Batch of 3 targets.
Target 1
Amino acid sequence: MARPVSGIVLEGVRKRFGDVVALDGIDLDAADEELLVVVGPSGCGKSTLLRCIAGLEAVDEGVIRIGDRDVTQIRPAARNVSMVFQSYALFPHLTVRENIAFGLVVREEPKAEVRARVAEASLLVGVDALLERRPYELSGGERQRVALARALVRRPDAYLLDEPLSNLDAGTRVEMRTELRRLHREVGATMLHVTHDQVEALTLGDRIAVMDAGRVRQVGTPDELYQRPQDRFVAAFLGTPAMNFLSAEAARPFVPVREGTVLGVRAEHVQLVPEGVGARVDIVEVAGSEAFVHLDRGLVAKVPASARPVEGTHVGLAIDQADTHLFDEDSGARIE
Amino acid sequence: MTDRRQVALMLAPYLVGVTALVALPALVTFGLAFTEYDLLRSPSFVGLDNFRDLANDDIFGIALKNSLVFAAIAVPLRLAGALGLALLLHRRFTGVGLYRSAGVVPTIVPEIAYGLVWLWLFNPLYGPINLLLRWHGDSPTTTAWGVQPPQWLTHPNDARAAIIIMSLFTIGEGFVILLVTRQGLPAELYELAAIEDATAWGVFRRITLPLMAPILLLLFARDLIFSLQWTFIPALVVTDGGPPPYSTTYVPLFVYRNAFEYLRYGYAASATLLMFVVTALIIWLQWRIVRRWRAGFAVGG
């Protein structure tokens, strides 16, 4: 079936709640059929952003476009988007079938059409065997699937997902992450996925937009963001464990750096070598196949668990200049 | 002190109160229902005579019918009013606190004072309600659309309507409960409905009403019990059980007259017991219907 081009474009979107600036001039562009993940810490404005696109909040300034339509001023239902809520927002008094059909029934679609599309959507997310159950009889993962089916059944121009995986246990979350990726490929529609979980962002997104304090700090592919973070915030936010930051003075034993800069190096690029800069091993955390080695000098190294040192011993460290990032000490901006 | 003792100690004042003021008098009353007792001489056992007399007492028949008709009309209207008010006032807007207070205030006015206010409001000649209805009337005694305004306190049906109208403003408790219930409903459900293009009526019918139904049913039962007793003060203060002979004589007033004016305490007690049984029967019937209805309507967490 031919589908209209339906990217999402935001230009200079601002939103204030009283004195609090929730969105401070957002420019963002999710291409047609793209899965764009918006990630940021709590309170960065990412959920507000999604609610503005859905029309649940009115913007103070700026323009929101879906496809070739300016939807800034039109009511939520006319924007033709589907939203999946963190709490799933399933109707407790309706069966799975009635929940999925809700959007079609209130739009008074023909009964046969509703039946066929509910069957199709429920099959797609694997809840076709649960249609006569009620939400309280479902597990968290199943509820999430029903919420997704309800979004899919309408065939909207775009999907807005507000932290859809945060209420799931760790195992189910990983499973649903893969499921979302597969669904996106099969449905081939624009999806905007909001999360605070940087791992989810890195594994799920075609591209990622990192937000902080109502602004978009950087937009790019997961590789771009991980390998060339444009500022210290993005560098610190993405990656586990967080990137090491060394002052110019602390960095000098490893690589030559100017005054007024901060050196960033990811834990996997801190090498333990026989002959290097001496450091004492403080704490060693083992996470399966790898280990996080906390050293004095304010560094954390990620090494294979089989090659981990013993706590309290002394090791040699080396950092390859090619693996480092330089940031301005005051502005936090990347220096090439 | 053990937990059990602590709980018992804390419950004690309440239990003593309920026992002394409710349970014991109720038991005594139920006992007296089978006696003849004029509050002066000691009661004498008469078996079921009182109930036989009640069955043949036309006035009791009228009182019972009046009470049931009142409840049948007033309870749905009171619930609809409380629900409407709750849905109207659950959003935040300037002055909403004032409106909410106004919804509750009539409920906390002392009943006698409330009755006296309505006695003035309903006065056919100088009462503000009929003054308003006669405003721009064709003649001094008719309304603008040419009919006589209701004779609130002198025409039987108008008087019964007056008592119902009075009851429609004492819905503060139901209003507060429904307001809190509505505010407890998840906002996302309504946001989803907005995105899915549900109309206001659709939202009410498909979301609000079903989700509030359990509380509404509870209030329905509670209000029914309330309504079968509430008529006492209005009937006593506003209409004096009339217009003659017994247009607004409800069971509570019937009981009061028999007990304290005619000194037929045993007879009044039997009427009370009968009313209790009728009330219990209605509540039981309602829960049976509700249970069957709920089988296809489980609201779980």
Target 2
Amino acid sequence: MRAQTPAIELVEATKKYGDVEALKGVTFHIDSGEVVAMLGPNGAGKTTSINLMLGLRKPTGGKVRLFGLDPEDRRARRRCGVMLQESGVPEALKVRELVELFAAYYASPLPQARAIQMAGLDEVAHKKVKDLSGGQRQRLYFALAIAGDPELLFLDEPTAGLDVEGRRGFVQAIRDFAASGKTILMTTHYLVEADQLAERILVIDRGLVIADAPPAEIKARVPGKRVTFASRNPPPAAELEALGAHNVELRDHRVRLLTNEPEAVLRELFRRDVEVADLEVAGADLEEAFVALTTKPKP
Amino acid sequence: MTSPSLLRMLRLQTRAEFLKLWRVPVFSFFSLVFPVMFFALIGLGQAHELIQPGVTFGAYFVASMGAYAVSNVMVFSFGVSVANERGMKMDLLMRATPLPPVIYLLAKVITAFVFGILSLVVLFGFASLVGAASLDLGTWLTMTWRLGLGALVFIAMGFAVGYLAGPNSAVVVVNFIYLPIAFASGLFFPLQLLPEFVRNISPYLPLRYYGQLGWNAVGVKTDNSVAQCFLYLAIYGVVFFAIALWAYRQEEARKFS
């Protein structure tokens, strides 16, 4: 019976803040045991989706269910752990005290020491929140989210504000928790992170899910190389796009474009006698590549 | 699916609330040390002078400071701490956890009462030890339960401030509203010593009636009877509670709908 009830279910969920349509009809479901990343630029509707799933906001239209229950139902909340963006905790309390407190909200929590260790907080367990660094705070929020050993874990931008080192450690911590068969929904705007952790990526942009596929498939749809060159006779952007280029920018005789097949694009340009000077081909950074995916019209 | 133990939840939540306040030096100072200090400064020198037949200044003033101490704990711990938690978006996280709001609230109330009682024990203990107010146990207990019951009004007042004021302005609001009220109600200096316009407004202030609960217990002939004081306080309590509820609903509609 429970196996058939998805952990998370959204059906045509919409959300309006005044005149602003933050979600324009989102439908997906996440089964127990899935690790899913919700990827999208700022303002795409990721946090709004999470808030609907947590019952912190009510949908304007459509349906949102956790384990088949209203997200505000305490029976649903007892099965969820939550890490929100920039939510505070009492500054005067110690790490250990907070973990113990949050664990008490749940029926069968993780042993306190285990939650602290999984979040990598052993060395600061006795410290007060106000004495923690930004990265340590972020780890604390993670520890509080897993303290109850929840079946379903929500992580809203868990690595925001962390340096590369910190981000790596965090990814490992999330992976360890996922290994015990948990359902995880995280939001991020880093494709790498989504790729490392999730088995499924939901790409969300301007309030709509524009892609829902395994990471490999998403990556294939994202152009991987950035080509820049100077030219006195650049072809119009539309022609370059026909060759498989995305995000073409033409400015002062300089051309910038993103593509998965730089060789093919360049071969075609040479064939057409387009002048190509000061050529540079580089791996597109993922942010840039991602923009290509999200600015395309809905497929 | 088993449920977590509500008692354990309440115990740990209360401990957390208590430590949160205890570790704020300003709060601990103003609720535990300041009333004793002020009592020592003002009350000790003339502790044994009679202000009415059978009532010493020491007894009168220990009641004043008791009323100040308890109401201060309530206004501060609800007003400032609720405003702070809202400012830090702590309310968001707490809402998303399985913690029942009633446990959260109850933990705050228990903590405030523990602090309130603690401040009375310290103050009364000091006053008896230095012999500045020799009252029998029954009188101490009468003051304690009256101030405890009346404290509910100031919890409501605190909540109203906590939901109306921003996190940074709550302390200022408390100091600009609550402290002048305490002053004008005769808690720091007897009303007879205050300017006439202050004496004229004092019958409209909740702390005036709260103070009388204490003064009356040590034998002072007060303007109003105990029953009248509780009645007026109940009216203030309902008004403050209505304001707090209204502000809470406003915020609810803005943040969580």
Target 3
Amino acid sequence: MSIHASPRALRASSWWRPVAARLDRFAGGVFILPAVLVILAFSIFPLLTSLYVSLSRLGFSEGGVQLKFVGFANYAKLLFGIDRPHFLGVSGPLTPIGIAVLVAIYGLFAFLLYRYARGPNLTVGGLVGRVLATAIAGALVWLVVNTILTSGRPGTLVVTLVYVAVDVSVQYLLGLGLALLVVQHLPGRRFFRVVFLLPMMITPVGVAYLFRMLVDTSKGPLYPLWAHFGLTDISWVTNPWGARLAVMVGDIWQWTPFIFIVLLAAIETLPHELVEAAVVDGANRLQVFWRITFPQILPATVTVVLIRIIEGFKIVDLPNVLTNGGPGTATESLTLHAYTIWRALDIGGSAAVAYMLLIVVTFVGISYVNLLRPRAAAA
Amino acid sequence: MSRILARALVLLVGVGVIAACSNGSNTSSNQSFSGTTIRVVTFTGPQIAEPLQRRAPDFEKATGAKVQIITVPFSDLYQKVLTDFSTKTNSYDATVFDPQWMGDYVPPGYLEDLTDRVKNDSALQWNDIAPFFRDFSATFKGKVYTIPLDGDFQMVYYRKDLLQKDGLKAPETWDDYISIAQHFQGKDLNGDGKPDYGSCLAMKRSAQSYWAWISIAAAYLQSQGTKQGAFFNTDTMQPLTNNPAAAAALTVYKQLSKIGPPEQLNQDVGDSRGLFVTGRCALSLDWGDIGPLAVDKTQSTVQDKVGAVILPGSKKVLDRSSNQLVDCNATLCPYATNGVNHSPFAAFGGWSGAINKAASAKVKDAAFAFLSYMSQPAQSSVDVTIGKTGFNPYRSSHFTNMGPWTASGMSDQAAKDYLGAIQSSLQSPNMVLDLRIPQTAFYQQTALDTALAQFLAGEISLSQTMTQITNQWNAKTDEIGRQSQLDAYRSSLSITK
């Protein structure tokens, strides 16, 4: 059957076609506009407003409030002024261990830069970005080593970095281990799959109270255990590292299931043929994991770890409920630091801490993605 | 017979009319607030919120008003209400809060002036409220802005049975307190076979610990009457936090952190009270709450075993001319008893009710009627005897009307001990007023509290602690304006009983 278009229809299509093409060209923008407006209204605008707030000081006036512009005074207070020990910590004289750690890490940074500079992918922009990232990372490492591996004390920035590094590493190892266990054909695997997810379902404040009871050696559900080992006179949460450990254990307990469920999904979708072929070729279990499974789940790994890093920087519930940031400021995270200042209505100071957090999270997130993206893409 | 019946009927009607009038005077008027809703914000209970929630239905029944009690955590209350009022959100019509914060609330005009209302409300019995609470808690620069619902002094509680058994006296000085605490530390004090504690204090960060430190420091810092002040030099607004008196108080505080439960640095008053009334501590430092809690049969194992005394003092005080800690003498310590300078600390100042100036006239009337109802002797004389209310005595009648106290289960002797300790604090000419200047929350809750927590945790040394507090306070004073802060501080001190 042949189709014959009428002259009228042909005329209509001749003017409609360019209009339709133009509409098609703008369709993407039109469809995305509502989302952009929502993001502008609820994300970008508050971000810019809070930037202005971080450059201001709040005062109360007759019937309202006043925001007085103070420039970078709130940031200067954190980085160079009276809040510097609270934010950055106090450094002590370097110990031999500290020097060894610094030499090893700085040597690694130098090696990576050298390898990039000599490699085939060298670009001016890439080199500048890497030098800048290395400088910032080097400064953060210096801060961590000088406040933790010396007689000094870490500030809220370093405490938060420690939380993120330890929590995310342990969560990933445990989550991956559990996921690998659950994909085995073990009895009760469905039951354990649900049980492993339970901690994630509990509100963080509930988890904090739970751990507060568990670490209380003078009473609580574990009292008989502490009493048996003669530990009733020892308090976990009044020792700086004991308290930090309690916070980290709580966070690891709660968020390991998140990594577990994502990696489990990734592992379960892997094609069996590759593994079977490798086994036929004589590969052992470690080789199968390292050469086949791990590269295949690398994209999921990169994503889930990035999410946990970003979330980890925002930790506040556990240290707030478990120890109120104490003993001293030992368990205070950056978010809790901002919250503590905000409670006294120093909104400018609080916004400055929040912006410092944003800068650090952005830097760590971008560096992490840039470091692992090529590998994930290759996988 | 019919005449007798008629007379009985008349008598009955008469009694009914009098009862109705009496009810009316307690709650301002019958059903006069029908359709009016009052939104009252205070801190998360059970303390303070409990009596408001318990009595709201009676008030609603009598007046027709609807009362909503909104609760937020104590650490958020200051900024939550201030943000609500200052941004003109006005989602709260009234607040039951810390009168220390009036320095931030009154100057910008957020609170309703209640001066005329309290004068015209006979049922409130304003003059029955102790002068200190009328003049300090309720008044700011000569005008009344709050209705006191609570009386707050810190004092020392001790296990009378244990001290008597071992021939010890209640502590007169902080040195006595430490030696008694050391004497009982590690001994079984409640017969459960477990070692107990010499002293239990709230030392948790972002809780009530800084009030305990001020209670100790007051004895060393202020000796010449209330107007001398314990926080700043009243001529220069320089903090009194970097001197031998502050050092002595920090030393005592650190010693006490080691004579108590292992978790003490992570415990607030809820924890220390629980330990004390279950017989696990020989001594404690607290507001008036332990008195009623100790007779509460549902939780206390130390009924009639608890004594209370005015805060311990010191035989050495700060000589402000030489900035040295020197022995008390008649000139330096005019109010000393047996050479011991006592400086009872009116910590916090007592929970008080205030009204949002931006509320409508009808709502303001209803809110005032509710706060008045809560404070009237008929209600408050019972509420101050119940431990979980968090309300402590603040009216003259609370000290003279012993009926509610004995009805609550307190023995005559225990009631006399408890009320005597409060009265001796209340009547002291050397009482220390709590800080009440703009941004008091920063000076105490942020700067002082953090430094004390760091000191107890060993993060900073004694001299670093004093320097840190002093620098933080000075920076905030300069930021706001030294002269205006000085004026505010002097103004708060001139209001004495």
